[in-house]
Amino acid sequence: MKGIITLTVCLCACLWASAQKNSSERISCNLYHLPERLIYDEIKTYSYSIIFDGERNPFSLEEIRKKSLTFESFKEVEKGDMEIRYRFGPLTFRDRKIVVTKQTREVNGKKEEYKIYHYDYVASYPMTVSASNTKNGFVVLSSERGTKSGEPNVLFSTKTFRSETELLDYWERSQNKLINDVLANNVNEFISFINEAMRNRFDFFRTKEYQFFFTLKKVDIADKFNAQVQTIIKTMSNITANEPTERAKEELATQIAYLEELKDKYKPTDKKEDVLFFSVNYNLASLYYCLDDMEKAEYYIRRLDEVKEDRSYRNDLSRSIAIARERMSKHMLDTRHLDYNPVTDFRLADKKYKSDAIGNAEYEARGMLDGTTTATDYIVLYDGTQLNGKVTFSENDGEYMFYSETQPDKPVTLNPAKHREFISGENMYFAAKYKDVRDVLALQFALVHYRSKYIMLLEKITAQYAQRERLYMLLKLTGEDDDKPMDFSPLSMKKDISKYLEDCIIIPERVKSGEYGNLLSVTLDKLKKLCEDYTACKP
């Protein structure tokens, strides 16, 4: 026990000593928030429509309008490029019950039981919002609460009473206000959440982003180091969101040079120097982050991987750098300090980018029409006709779509009954008969892993094409009437494959010897080797 106490004291002393070596100071960097999505190539204005269902709603139409979102970079008009549709209600009562709880109290030195009563009220009040591109109907944002059957989102308990009569009287007098108060809180919370989500996803707006800089304590360089840091803090605090960072870089040239001279002076794993190493490199990472130089910011934050102290600071800044790099790249910006509005002063017209204001089908069609998307894929019909274009997978519909280079505005849903095979990127797909998830034999697309004049190695994919199953098939190619694909499992592969490929005398022997794998060792490479050997033995 004494040893544990001593260890604990020593540990606390070490942590206390470490904490005395530096301290953090939070500052606000003024910059523009860069949105998660790019919609301003299509959308410049927005408008609202608000629908109330049912008789009970906590706010009027005008009150909802006052609470609704105001973008900084988009203009609100009567009929905008983007329509934001709110829908509230109706209130659907689910359950209300009197809850009786037994309590104990002491009266004249004796314990006696008594009961208290309250109401538990449960209802659902659907709230939905969607934001759509009015030019093409594409939904760029959708959110809902309390819309699923039986999903209550209006729940509250009344205060307690000593008798059921008092509770009923209170409920009769107060139920309207109680329900309205809960509805109002739900609506306020929902609108606040949507406003924040939409601004984060779509809007450019001035913001203050808080970052930390570290000063030192009780070390010989503390005075000089802290003076340099204070200069950095003062200068960065005065840089506005619409002011380029060049002035700050010039004014802080001495401070940057000073910190960079120290970046390798201290050892990250030395207990006496790790805090110094951390403070120097973290400050550089934080400074370059505020100056929008994400490459250098990432370099310095990665140098802190070996330092065990202050991991939360390091991890938070690392995430911020990653997000900033991603969004700057998406909007093709090298700064978050903007002296123009990217929505109205559009500067992406001559650049290649992917819009978030149109669906995948429209994006591919446009790309084929304007030449930015190359016809690298093709489909083959059953009569042998090959059509060039672009094949994409629609996650929403679970289907492959083909955009012809001659008619890209008329996409075709690929169907194994009409399309014998197609190429999508580096993958080939082939229409073969095999059992689907309902155990029904039907034509379905399968992924091709090997193909020769005589045989194909196929992999089943699910009916929705969303996930590949590691289930393989062999298909002998014999001409117009190709053999039915052979399903096999590791449990019976020796017997099944030997019989299926018995027309090649060397295959059964090699299969039985385990050359192509067995229950525990079957691999895709071994199955490809099997197909290669079968092809080699054919005339």
Overview of this protein structure:
By secondary structure, this protein is of the alpha+beta class. The protein contains 13 helices and 20 strands. The strands form 4 sheets. A 10-stranded antiparallel beta sheet has the order 14-13-12-11-15-16-17-18-19-20, with helices on both faces. A 5-stranded mixed beta sheet has the order 3-2-4-7-8. Helix 6 (253-262) runs antiparallel to helix 7, helix 7 (274-290) runs antiparallel to helix 8 (294-302) and helix 8 (294-302) runs antiparallel to helix 9 (311-330). The longest helix has 39 residues, at 164-202. The chain is extended.
Number of strands: 20
CA radius of gyration is: 34 Å
The average pLDDT score comes to: 85
Structural class: alpha+beta
The strands making up the biggest β-sheet line up spatially as 14-13-12-11-15-16-17-18-19-20
Distance between the termini: 83 Å
> What is the tally of helical segments?
13
Low-confidence stretches: 1-18, 463-469
- Share in β-strands: 25-35%
Largest sheet: 10 strands, antiparallel
Principal-axes geometry comes out as extended
Q: How helical, in percent, are the residues?
A: 25-40%
